[in-house]
Amino acid sequence: MISDVDNLYSRLLAEFRKVIVGKEEILRLMMVALLADGHVLLEGVPGVAKTLMAKAFSQSLSLSFKRIQFTPDMLPSDVMGTYVFNVKTQEFSFRRGPIFANVVLADEINRATPKTQSSLLEAMQERQVTVEGYTERLQEPFIVLATQNPIELEGTYTLPESQLDRFMFRLMVDYPDHEEGVHILEYALKGMDIPDVVEIAPRQEILDAKELIRKSVQVKPDVLEYVVEIIEATREEQGKIALGGSPKAAVHLLNSCRALAVLEGRDYVIPDDVKKLAFPILNHRVLLAPQYASDVGVLDHKLQYKQLNGLISDLVSRIEAPR
Hints:
Order of helices and strands: HHEHEHEEEHHEEEHEHHHEHHEHH
Low-confidence stretches: none
Oligomer: single chain
Shape: globular
Largest sheet: 5 strands, parallel
């Protein structure tokens, strides 16, 4: 039932609040991505609880968790796994890499070389890993939570468009406000940590929720038209956008809207769902034209993020929503 999924999120939020101050909208979108077979790119400076959020998220949902600390010397085999020789059996056997988990934290993903970054593409898109002709499916649910620091660019490799397009959302994890900062210190005095988070749902409950969304959430034809019109608008904007949303962006927008509808207690998608999710879906897919990017200050990531928000919001506002 729809109410069961809504209740699941309420229980998750209660556990999340035990160790994380604020960031509830980010948690909501992480849950949407999990239920909609998406992945999330968390962008923020060090120390804003990106890793802690990923750990709390996986532990409360009884999901296996692996963290991959990306470095320039990392190889694809360090992510996917490799064949090793067993002296006892005199045979090679496949040793699984850290990608074989329900929740994979790809920490500082942009520090890995393009070759290593590309090792994630098959896993993120097809939910499988292929090594030397051997293919193995990943256990469902599967979500990659990748992090990157938008300020420190030395020794990093910019994620290519094909990699960015695999992520459903790019979310900015910002500094806490004053009140949240005080609460963080109160948590530190109490010694709050991941062990305080308890498992609130078995893995099967997540799988059941995904199946419910797939079978029960209705989308009217005019809403489908609305989604496509928004994506097309990003490709038609002259002078400001060099690269707009792909067909995959439209699929991600539709699927995430279905998951959001269920979290809000509905079995149907409304235009407001599309409006809410348009920016996190598009902000890493829309590539600003060079002349426009230089005008808004491309080196200031917060200003660029704000300008992208304004640009996408303006595009959405121009398109008449169905009634």
